[in-house]
Amino acid sequence: MLVPILLSLLWAICSTVLVLPWFWHGLIKRKTIIGDEKYRGVRNTEKNELKSAIILQIVYACISLAISLFMYLVIIVRHNFYGSIISILFVLLFQFFTMLEGWNSKRKEKSLIILAVAVVCLFFSLTDSITSNFNVIGLSKANEEIPIFVSSIEQEKEVEKTVLSGSTVAGLFKATGVSGPEYSNGKFVYTVTKSPNGYGIVIIDEKAGETARFIACDFEFQMSLNLRERYPFARVKELNVVISDDNIPFGKYAILSKPNLFGAPVLEKYVLQNMLTGDFTEYTAEELPKFAE
């Protein structure tokens, strides 16, 4: 939590005159931030102009702080250049507005420099975003064979029933948000987000399809602050929920690296999060438990 707050404060400060050399030169050497035709500084030719300029800088800082906190704590972006690109672009925008105010020279040249920096940042960010959607090198493929029937024993005779749809499971558990099914370790898995029992997982064994079991989970299958804090700079890909042999649900994530800007992401390791306890366990592709494959 501390790192996102510090990064947000950094971008807030960078959005203001506090990072500009002329501000500190005027404050230390000239004992004023008011400029004139000779010195760069704030205009003060009209009433309350200096006060308005200071308030505007505070507004810039607050906007940058709010946007950065939202990106780091709500969207949960990476704590690097690519995750901070929105904050950086707002910094450039506010510095552009600041340059247009007060006494300043060579505004055209400075505007072009700011524009060039923004274009370069966008180029790298968009390239990274597009190539991140390429197929991940080393990531195991999803199951190619998934049964569409489950076996059930009725009156000492084995019969087959069609796999329940998500809407049917929602009706059974009076839930308004159900996704799935997904197939894992011989079981059909449904994710329940809104129900009288809260968030949880419903599992139906393909060999015992007469019972649907709800497992309440304290931790959701999604990108979380805890997961981001463990891997602040890495790409984290959400894969699916897997079920162990003893019916414990795990959120399965892939930790990716990207050694080449124009290349596809590469699998570094898998991470399984116990959705009951929140514990994380790392595995290489070779070490991944069979139930999670």
Describe this structure in a few short sentences.
Helices cover 35% and strands 25% of the residues. It contains 7 helices and 10 strands. Helix 1 runs parallel beside helix 4 (85-100).
List keywords for this structure.
single chain; 293 residues; alpha+beta; four-stranded antiparallel sheet; 7 helices; 10 strands; 35% helix
Helix/strand layout:
Elements: H1 2-14, H2 21-30, H3 49-75, H4 85-100, H5 107-131, E1 149-154, E2 157-162, H6 166-172, E3 177-184, E4 187-194, E5 200-205, E6 208-216, H7 225-230, E7 235-243, E8 249-257, E9 266-274, E10 280-283
Antiparallel strand pairs: 1-2, 3-4, 4-5, 5-6, 7-8, 8-9, 9-10
Order of helices and strands: HHHHHEEHEEEEHEEEE
Report on the biggest sheet: 4 strands, antiparallel
Q: N-to-C terminal Cα separation, in Å?
A: 32 Å
Largest sheet, order of strands side by side? 3-4-5-6
Number of helices: 7
Structural class: alpha+beta
Q: Spans with pLDDT under 50 lasting ≥5 residues? A: none
Can you tell me the overall shape?
elongated
The Cα radius of gyration reads 27 Å
Helix content: 25-40%
User: What's the mean pLDDT score?
Assistant: 87
- Strand % is 25-35%
Can you walk through the features of this model?
The protein is 35% helix and 25% strand. The chain has helices at 2-14, 21-30, 49-75, 85-100, 107-131, 166-172, 225-230, and strands spanning 149-154, 157-162, 177-184, 187-194, 200-205, 208-216, 235-243, 249-257, 266-274, 280-283. A four-stranded antiparallel β-sheet has the order 3-4-5-6, covered by helices on one side. Strands 7-8-9-10 form a four-stranded antiparallel β-sheet, with no helix packed on it. Strand 4 and strand 5 (200-205) form a beta hairpin. Helix 1 packs parallel to helix 4, helix 3 (49-75) packs antiparallel against helix 4 (85-100) and helix 4 (85-100) packs antiparallel against helix 5. The mean pLDDT is 87.
